[in-house]
Each structure stands twice: as structure tokens, then as C-alpha cells.
Amino acid sequence: MRHVRYHAHGGPEVLAVEESEVPEPGPGQVLVRPEVIGTNYLDVQLRRETDRASIWYRDLPGTLTGDVVGTVERTGPDVDPALVGTRVAALSVDAWADRVLADAEWLVPVPDDLDAATASLLPLAGAVALGSLRLGRIAAGETVLVTAGAGTIGHLAVQLARHRGAGTVIATAGSDAKRKLLTELGADLVIDHTAPDWDAQVKAAAPEGVHLVLDAIGGDTLHRSLGLLAPFGRAVVYGASAGDLTSVPVTSVFGLCSLTGFAIVPYRLTVPDQARADLDELTGLLVSGKLRGVIGERLPLDEPVRAHRLLEDRAVLGRLVLEP
């Protein structure tokens, strides 16, 4: 089978399509034949990191994560064999291949009438967006700021914030096309985050402060976002695409504010029932059309270098998927 890996850290050109044996599912696993593979920006950071001390560093050879939607072909020794033949979505740490192993415990059933690329947003992107809003304790009528709003997770967070009762939704994006998309998705105000005064523009629109910030960028963007919070405001960080993991001064939260980090694995482990309920809710919203999944690019599995160039250049609206 085809299998994408890299044997050196560096630019997109280190990605290679290889031939590998079809893996055998172990305990707690299933083997999935993908219809589509949803890509993640995180892999750009993992692929290019050479510093062993960095949290982004991974040993070689490196594999690529993804959200796979497809059919279960085989089950592990302790997994219900009735799963064979079912259509599912699943997060995998080695997803760019013709056959993919996944954790049977967190398979998401995918209805036949749900587009596979859209369904790829369920296991991670939708779960992170909804989980972050829950962690941020969003309340009706509040003002929410979503940075990187046109990204794979951000474009869902903008819509889910509105769905959960936000009074005003402000989003940031770095291109005209992305800002246009966010307006179509229901953001009340969309700001160019490459503008030097982007935070001043947010403050002018929300002079009493922002109640909740969802941030995927980190670094200076996070620091400036904290300065926009209203008293008792909350910031939830679910990514650091800027690659800057510098510390946040304690003074940033002295205004009765709070800062929390969100990650999907601890969320699943700590509140598994809520995490599963989130997946059911997201599926219903996508099927009903109340939540719109934006698929910006579809590429064949044989073009991993082109895929990572698009991701690295942040040239994709919403999600980029691969089709085996």
C-alpha cells in the first residue's frame, strides 16, 4: 500500500510516498480503508522541527496525522467484529496511507448521506472547536473573538459560537478571501490580523472587552488577545501555529481574567461522556446543515509535497483533504 513518511526534518520536499505492508490491527484497534484523509497544520510544525528540545520534535521516520473517513475492514482481537463494513471517522497518528489503524473506542459513526470530506471535521476539528467553547464557558449574549477564524478549526468555532448563543462574534484572518468566507459564515466583524492595529480594531468594536477568546496562533497574538478581555473574561488556547511558545506574564490575567489550554486527548480522558456527546451533537449539526464544513482543497494522496506547501503557506480556506 502507499504510505507517506519523511526520513529527515525540513521543508515539504522531505515527504515521500513509499510502499508499505498493510498493518494488522492490534488490541483496541481497527483497520480503516479511507475515502478521504483530513490534513492537520500541526504536521507542518512536526515535519520541520530539528531541535530535540522542542515540543514539536518527533523522531524519524516521521508519520503524518489526519482525520480518516472510511470503512472498517478488520478489527483487533478484542474489538467487536460487527464493526467490519461500517463507515466511520477517526483520528490517527499515521493517517496518510491506503490503510489506516485507528482507536476503536473513539470511532465516530458517519451517516451515508454525509459527505466524507465534511465528516473528516468530526474527530478533531469539530471536537476541538466545541470543546474549547465549553471550556471557555460561553454564555448567551457574550462577545467572542476567534483568531485564525478561517482555519480548519476556526471556521467551525465561529459558527458554533453563534449556535451556542454568542451575541457578537469577531474573527481574524489574513486574506480577503478568508475574511469574505468568515462574513458568509456569520461573523459580525472580521479583522485583518496582519494589520499592526488589529487589536485596537477589536477594542473599538468591543469597548467593554471580549468575554471569550479562542486562540490557535499563540505568541504575540495571544498576548494581545489577553489585553482585550473584559473583567472575568476567558481565553482558551488550542494551538500555537506561530510556533512561539513563550510564557505569558502573570500581569496579563490580573484583570480578573483566566487562560486555559485545550487538547483533545486530555479532554477525552477526563470527560469521556461529554466528549462522545460532543461528537453526536456535531454530527447532527453537519447533517442538518446548521454547521457548514468548508473544504478548501482536495488533492490525491500522491501529492503530499503540494499538500504541505499549501498548508505551510496558509493558502487553504477551511480544510484540505487527501483522496487515496
UniProtKB/TrEMBL annotation:
InterPro entries membership: ADH-like_C, ADH-like_N, ER, GroES-like_sf, NAD(P)-bd_dom_sf
Name of the protein in question: Oxidoreductase
Superkingdom as given in the UniProt entry: Bacteria
Alphabetically ordered keywords of this record: NADP, Oxidoreductase
The organism's taxonomic lineage, starting at the top: Bacteria, Bacillati, Actinomycetota, Actinomycetes, Streptosporangiales
Pfam families: ADH_N, ADH_zinc_N
Any single GO CC term annotated in Swiss-Prot or TrEMBL for this entry: cytosol
Species in which this protein is naturally found: Actinomadura harenae
Residue span(s) of domain Enoyl reductase (ER): 10-322
GO MF annotation, one: NADPH binding
